[in-house]
Amino acid sequence: MIKRILFICTxxxxxxxxxxxxxxxxxxxxxxxxxxxxxxxxxxxVMSGAPTAPALSLREFYPDQKLQKIIAMALNxxxxxxxxxxxxxxxxxxxxxxxxxxxxxxxVSGGENKQRIPANVMGFPESLIIEQYKVDLGVASWEIDFxxxxxxxxxxxxxxxxxxxxxxxSAQIALVSEVARAYFILAADREKLxxxxxxxxxxxxxxxxIRRRYEVGLATELDLRRAQTPVDVARGDVASYTQMVAxxxxxxxxxxxxxxxxxxxxxxxxxxxxxxxxxxxxxSEVLLRRPDIMAAEHRLKGAYAYIGAARAAxxxxxxxxxxxxxxxxxxxxxxxxxxxxxxxxxxxVMPIFxxxxxxxxxxxxxxxxxxxxxxEKTIQTAFWEVADALAVRGTVDQRVSAQQSLVNxxxxxxxxxxxxxxxxxxxxxxxLDAQRSLFAAQQGLISLCLARVANRVQLYAVLGGGGESGDxxxxxxxxxxxxxxxxxxxxx
Length: 492
Fold this sequence. Notes:
Elements: H1 2-15, H2 58-61, H3 65-77, H4 79-100, E1 106-117, E2 128-144, H5 149-215, H6 221-256, H7 283-286, H8 291-312, E3 317-328, E4 340-349, H9 355-422, H10 428-462, H11 482-491
Antiparallel strand pairs: 1-2, 2-3, 3-4
Helix pairs in contact: 3-5, 4-5, 4-11, 5-6, 5-8, 5-10, 6-10, 8-9, 9-10
């Protein structure tokens, strides 16, 4: 009998392989075939042989040794990334639960039943005590998936798991870019603080010189008050940048998930090794490999599978309950000869009228349209992000060059104004204006150098780089990738 039941179950598993899921075809990408062209993009041609962002590991793109250590800390300790990895583990476990619905659940049960029947009941003149012992091994309410309802739900759970794993990669890309950006901002603000302190020291020296000249009658009180103004402004700038440096360091510590050692931090932006340059590639080849777009596509495939499950609800559901065991009115005779019992109870349920089934099908089709629209919007947003980053890259070098020329001119202007004041040709007002212009120009140059470095970080991220840890892989293991990993996890 056991062999017969196992044979029937195996045959039903093999027969139940129909699927009503619509065939999936990847929708065309709603973006141009090439990146934008024009004056702002003239330096962004697709470079032959140059690596694209996904082809470069974190260590290759970020050559700065200190930054590599901070990124490794973040990959190990950042709580947002850890939550993303845990969500992947949860999605993988849910997929395992849904996949297990395809197979029968075999249980063993045992029990004892005692019952007293009063006299003159059921035709017995005296009261009776009926005692029964029973042990059963069987399958309870196993649905045989003839029309693919459970398989469709399994495929939907698998696509949700894969989408969650891609979301983890997307979170890692965002984390790495934020860490690099915070690192460079901290270095730039430290350089601005150094500039503010140098300016304060210079202005304090000039003020002391004018004060001594004022005390001997060689300078006017107006010159003294004008010399005091840049000193007070520089003191305020020092305090302001001191605050900004502290806040930048706090932000970097939060992203890293722990306190970043002082020797991991760059003293200024000039001492930082800038990220490498990359080729933008072709939109259709690069963007469709971005984790957020791949996650959206997995959800779209899951919507197709849900339609299959909704369609299968219109067809009969066949379930099987079967068991084999032994029963006896005495415990000692439970496994004796002639005590064997068995039960075989297939059941079929055919929906005749259920408005919920039709509503569920309409919901599944509307859900597919919604997710398709979200998928297309994700692609368009990605294209816009890359286009903006390319517009910055095509112009930022010219802006840095112009600002450097401005700094050189203001340095000379300040030197000449100071000489003219020292010789008594001009008032100190000319020196004050030149000093303000020089300080602003130097600050602007640091900001533009930061913008150039940050643009490379942004371009690397929006082109899908940094999704794999590579040789900076964190010590805490992330979830397995792909269907193979999910199947292996379930089988274990």
